[in-house]
Known about the structure:
Elements: H1 3-18, H2 21-33, H3 39-50, H4 55-80, H5 91-122, H6 129-136, H7 139-166, H8 173-200
Amino acid sequence: xxxxxxxxxxxxxxxxxxxxxxxxxxxxxxxxxxxxxxxxxxxxxxxxxxxxxxxxxxxxxxxxxxxxxxxxxxxxxxxxxxxxxxxxxxxxxxxxxxxxxxxxxxxxxxxxxxxxxxxxxxxxxxxxxxxxxxxxxxxxxxxxxxxxxxxxxxxxxxxxxxxxxxxxxxxxxxxxxxxxxxxxxxxxxxxxxxxxxxxxxxx
Length: 203
C-alpha cells in the first residue's frame, strides 16, 4: 500500500469512527437509556427509531457501510501495529494497545448484538424491552454485554483522542494532555449510561 493511500485510509478510518459511527453510538446509548424509565418509555423510543423515514437506506449508508470499513481497516491496523508496552510502559503506549484489543472485542460484540436484535427483527421478532430483558436474563450474556459496552465506549473515547491528533486539532503536548482528560471523562460518562441501561433490563 502506497504511503499516500495509507495516509488517506487512516484519516478516513479515523473520521468514520467518529462520524457517523461514533455519532450513532451516542444516539443508540441515548435510546437505550430510556429503559431506565421503564418498558413503555423504552419501547416508545425504540419504535420511534424503527419508524424513521428511509430507515434502511440510512442504516446501510450511515451505519453499516462506514462501520464495515472502519472495522476491516481497523483489523489491518491492529495486526500491523508494533506494540512496545513490554519495553516502554508509558500511558499512551498502553492506550494504543488497548485501542487495538478493544477494537477486536467491539467487532465481535457488535456482530453478536446485530444477530441478537437486527437479524432477529428481520426474521419477524420485535425489538422491544421484553426482547432485551430475555437476552440479559442469562447472567453470562449480561456479563458479555457489560464487557462489550465498556470496550465500545473505551474504543470510541480513546479514538477521539487519536482523531484529534490525526486531524490536527490537538498539536501541542498541552492540548493532547487536556484531550486525554476530556476523552477519559467521555469514557466514564458513556460507560455509566451504557451499563445503567443494560442493568435496567434485568428483572
